[in-house]
Amino acid sequence: MVLDEGSSREDNDAGTVLEGESYTNMEHKWDEAYGYVYGLNADASDPNADLGADSFLNEYIGKLEEDADFAGIADEIFQAFKLGRAAIVAGDYDVRDAQAEIIREKISQVIAVRGIFYMQNAKTTLAEEVPNYAGAFHALSEAYGFIYSLRFTRKPGTDAAYFTKAESDELLEELMGDGVNGLWDVEAETIDEISEDIAERFNFTVAQAGE
User: Fold this and answer.
1) Are 87 and 93 in contact (CB under 8 A)?
2) Cβ 40 vs Cβ 62: under 8 Å
3) What is the pTM of this model?
């Protein structure tokens, strides 16, 4: 874990701050992670008040928060960041690690849910009497990125991804078809199969993610 690299734990226990700074290296690493999620939010004390401050994780956490099936995830992530940061200051690394696991699990869930959401959105759009191909291919492109990102997810309590690189690549190959026409030839059945594979691994349903 990057938080414990080198002498980070010993320096944190001793209160040794980075040169010219007021925080330890471990505190800095934790704060960097926080910044990737909440760095652009206006109110640091309540960043969930304006989710969508960026077009990346912050926005997608907000999308799940708006879904009744996943409501509460934003506060779970924020509270884990807060408690984990306090645990670092207190030198309680068991609590820190428990909060890191929550953050990993919930961020991984965001990636999986949004991948399925965009695939299902594209399927619905392509089935319309006059398909909006621009909208459908935008959704499929978003889905492609989320499926690719599955290799960077983490199962709770492990350093293993929910999907290995090979498994993620296999899903992408299924989505792209035979490689001749790529996404132009994607079929509803294929979208559903990929969606089911992802949902099953994360223990939620396609219906929950695809709303």
Assistant:
1) yes
2) no
3) 0.93
